[in-house]
Amino acid sequence: MDWSLELSFMTFMVASVFIPLALLYFFSMRSGRKLLLPPGPQPLPIIGNMLMMDQLTHRGLARLAERYGDLFHLRLGSLHAVVVSTPEMARQTRKLCVMKLFSRRRLQSWASVRHEVDSPVRFAARRSGSSVDVGDLAFTLAKNITFMAAFGAQSHGNQGEFAGILQEYSKLFGEFNISDFLPWLRWLDLQGIDKRLKVARQAIDRYIDVIIDEHLTNPKEADAQSADMVDCMLAFLGDSGDTEEGGDLHGGLSLTRGNIKAIIMDVMFGGTDTVTLGVEWAMAELLKSPEELKQTQQELASVVGLHRKVNDNDLDKLPYLKCVVKEMLRLHPPIPLLQHQATHDCELAGELLRASTVRVGPAVLPGHAVGALCAGAGDGAACFDWSLAAGTKPRDLDMGDVFGLIAPKAVRLMVVPTPRLTCPLQ
């Protein structure tokens, strides 16, 4: 009798676990047939392609794209993801940036932020002969330039607070959150990530609201020389400040307050960590290949000379430096993948995607971020001779990266600067 009761209890427990899972699998399969998804690896029941998580780095996804095409589908638990790596779509996204917010005319109006580059140069000059962390130096450069370009001088004193919020956001975005793939566990918040994200989001919303209100209180014409990015975007905001999407302001372009806040976040994420990692990776590649560093410095010496620092007018005359930056971005994309979630059923590159599908594709750096990379790498190579700290040989330099929302060096780059210009650097 006891044995019979024990067997019945075990049967009940097994049924209570597997029947809901079977129903979940059945309904997920039924809903998945509503739309024809792109090709991709065959998913397993319930967990989908989650056993491939260790392969889903930017390099792993590139290998999968060679097999399944520029647009392919992954099912991660109950989450549908579509990986996009089509050159044509990347060109369209970049064109939008080039023609609107990051046009050459707009970049020229931000020339006043160029003096921010002098701050890390002066710091490196004071540390001549001592070990310097290139990542910390580059972060100071990126933070100052991006903050000034986006928000202007009126909010310059608060950039430390905002940088801290961004760093917390970047860390949380890069975390593996089981709730993203198994939504029925979200209410438990097993890792506490959702709570931390909510707190960070509220903090960043409050901060950006203050910035927007400052600009609304002291408005500037979008074409003014002193106008920053927020001033430019507010020119497309309705008089009420609550223009609905789809309005017809300024030739069809209309922005809501929420749109402006989202763009500010994109610019700050795309202009701080990306520039920081870009400068660090560029310096690492040059120090790994001393001949390439020598050729870069020779070009700088012939175009700029040794009597002054690099300025914006020099950049168009430095093709080799530009090639160094472009090759670094090819080898070490600072933000290798960018995720977007479809809010409704839609079509992408001829494929029908269901609502809540996550699109994964390469990030496009803001124009000022790429310019800052050239400026940062150019100043570093022009102003100083560099050697690896602790007697490290170029062939022994660790070039491994850590995959996440961003892809930093696994080991921080420590170098020793020696001034090479004849002009004062401090």
Automatic annotation (TrEMBL):
Kindly indicate whether the keyword Cytoplasm belongs to this entry.
no
Q: Which Pfam families match?
A: p450
The UniProt GO MF terms for this protein read:
heme binding; iron ion binding; monooxygenase activity; oxidoreductase activity, acting on paired donors, with incorporation or reduction of molecular oxygen
The transmembrane segments are: 6-27
Q: Which Gene3D superfamilies match?
A: Cytochrome P450
What's in the keyword line of the UniProt record? Membrane, Transmembrane, Transmembrane helix
Keyword presence, Cell cycle: no
Q: What is this protein called?
A: Cytochrome P450
- Source organism per UniProt: Ensete ventricosum (Abyssinian banana)
